[in-house]
Amino acid sequence: MHDLKQIRDHPDDFDAGLARRGLPPRAGEILSLDEEARKYTHALNELQARRNALSKEIGAAKGKGDEAGFARLMAEVEAIKAQLPVAEKEQKRCADRVQAILEALPNIPAADVPRGTSEAENVELRHWGEPKAIAGAKEHFDIGEGLGQMDFATAAAMSGARFVLLKGQLARLERALANFMLDLHTGEFGYTECVPPLLVRDEALYGTGQLPKFAEDLFKTTADHWLIPTAEVPLTNIVREKILDAEDLPLRFTAWTPCFRSEAGAAGKDTRGMIRMHQFSKVELVSVTAPEKSGEEHERMTACAEEVLKRLGLPFRTIVLCAGDMGFAATKTYDIEVWLPGQNRYREISSCSNCGAFQARRMRARFKGKDEKQTQFVHTLNGSGLAVGRTLVAILENYQQADGSVAVPDVLRAYMGGLEKIGTRD
Predict the structure, then answer these.
(1) 364 catalytically annotated
(2) What percent of the chain stands above pLDDT 70?
(3) Residue 18 belongs to a domain
């Protein structure tokens, strides 16, 4: 959510930020409606003040037996009663329209975010490891099906397209990856592990920016709950409508959860394999910080996600997204892309975003220093640390062997009961 006062004070800067997103100016429309709403608010205040004053005058007129004055004052009260609902309706109409516009507009890009309109204009910041060139490299779905442990047909018979059934060693590998990530983030990086709800209400998704704009990307139950698209939603909402103590910041949370997405706009994209699923698992990272620390926290979070790939020995690159390619709630985003030999390209495996105060305003999440009277909005950040299914994909493709087996990365062997290779049989 945007700060209306900031728009009033700096309308040109607001429109310039929207322009970097590829959007038309909106400050004029917002401020015109805002001025109209404030005009009606002023009128309401005056009407209510006059009504209060009249009640005293009516009492005085009645006490003096001034019937003419009493009648005149009562007529004025009746006129005010008729005007109040009209003014209230108009004030609400204008205020609701301002609210609806602000709800639908994405966050403003940070000053150092590159200009651009598409992923082609994202900027590589660094890369780690050498992309593997594997002769006759297979894609993950051919490897997994060859092992007899990745079954799309059975999953489709149960649930339709974009689902998978993992079995045997691959099922254990997914669990091993999640446990390795959780142990790393909690044991070395100071995140607090959580097991959050997977079903949330409207206000939770509103707080993080998925509602109302992106309802079609979500799955909704018949009981008016939504399946979470990412653990970002419940983890960030931990601080919803709270006033935190400044000395408790930053807060850092992590969770391994299933995630559910309709992939409404993904027709024809990644139709084979596990890259784009309706259900997948992810280890999510969420931070809540003071505003002056969020930039530093963003770098830290991204480094935590990168470290997972380094320890798995998976080559990757880190890019900063241009303004036109960022997600709705982000003011700045780093994407980490892992190398996939079977596709001979890098693919996104983590997206780490600084949302500034955008989500906090929607959630009314604030903090206050020990001796301070005023509260401030916190800054929120989120990132994948990592997408577990895509990490499994990367291991299959980068550690594939000529005989159809897959070597187990050293750091995962303890989680796999000492297994060094995933063979063609369980």
Answers:
(1) no
(2) 98
(3) yes
Whether the CB-CB separation of 261 and 205 falls below 8 Å is answered with no
Which one is catalytic: 8, 50, 175, 276?
276
CA distances in angstroms from 10 to 1, 30, 31, 111, 383, listed in the order given? 16, 12, 11, 15, 30
- Our count of domains for the chain comes to 2
Catalytic residue among 172, 261, 317, 366: 261
What is the CATH classification number for the domain harbouring 354? 3.30.930.10
**Does residue 279 belong to any structural domain of this protein?**
yes
Specify whether 390 is catalytic: yes
Q: What is the pLDDT of residues 45-63, one digit of tens each?
A: 999 898 888 988 888 888 8
Q: Are residues 124 and 216 in the same domain?
A: yes
Residue 109 lies in a domain: no
Residue 391 forms part of a structural domain: yes
pLDDT, residue 266, reads: 61
- The string of pLDDT tens digits covering residues 279-331 is 999 999 999 999 999 999 999 999 999 999 999 999 999 999 999 999 999 99
With contact defined as beta carbons under 8 Å apart, do 52 and 80 qualify? Answer: no
Per-residue pLDDT reduced to its tens digit, 73-90: 889 888 999 999 999 999
**Does residue 347 have an active-site annotation?**
no
Provide the pLDDT for residue 44. Answer: 93
One domain, residues 95 and 165: no
Task: Domain of residue 254: give its range.
Answer: 119-422
Q: Are residues 86 and 181 in the same domain?
A: no
